[in-house]
From TrEMBL, chains A, B:
It holds the Pfam family NTF2. It comes from Rubroshorea leprosula. Gene3D superfamilies: 3.10.450.50. The keyword Glycoprotein does not apply. This is NTF2 domain-containing protein. Residues 8-120 form the NTF2 domain. Keywords: Cytoplasm, Nucleus, Protein transport, Transport. It comes from the Eukaryota. InterPro entries: NTF2 (IPR045875), NTF2-like_dom_sf (IPR032710), NTF2_dom (IPR002075), Nuclear_transport_factor_2_euk (IPR018222). PANTHER family: NUCLEAR TRANSPORT FACTOR 2 (PTHR12612). GO terms for cellular component: cytoplasm; nuclear envelope.
Amino acid sequence: MEEQVDLVGNTFVDHYYHLFDNDRSSLASLYQPSSMLTFEGQKILGVDDISAKLNQLPFDQCRHIISTIDSQSSAGGIVVFVSGSLQLPEEEHHLRFSQMFHLIPTLQGSFFVQNDIFRLNYG
Amino acid sequence: MEEQVDLVGNTFVDHYYHLFDNDRSSLASLYQPSSMLTFEGQKILGVDDISAKLNQLPFDQCRHIISTIDSQSSAGGIVVFVSGSLQLPEEEHHLRFSQMFHLIPTLQGSFFVQNDIFRLNYG
């Protein structure tokens, strides 16, 4: 059971950051009207506003390098906790980040992102 | 609604780390048999084993300093994402950490920790 959870979490993380780094506008397909994103403390509700936020971030090119993925089954879904670094073309140093997702099954047998919280790690 | 969520998240975080730093064995009261903790990649199931793990950590004294708390309502509960630093008496530098909780309401009108994922932030 928990092995299946790890597989879903790892597969989701690969897919999510691949889209983020290569075809960011496609991330909208992973959210729904009930979804929430908190990005550096700013809370955004719903797929439309979340997609707009992600597409308006002040960088075009980026690359996420994943350090750790921890997944657990949770009430009606899977929680996924990611740590890694974000590489931007104009930045010499990588930016460390942590991000969590709560994935909920869809009627189609896939998952969508109900909760998404992103923070850069300073200090 | 989301203001209430922030209030629950902030109150929980204050309570959790106060117990951790002052009366760590009492943290068991916040978990249930279904709870999961992933601590630095080690997955632990159930209040008994979680409590044992927390009480066997290789330090007695510690102090958590909280930097950010992000909370969202989620399927049947609240997700809380925390960043901060951990101060140990024998360590000169603080250790940065991130931690997430999925809180589920109890029949008594309180919350318990269904999911808990902890990671130190390196690099």
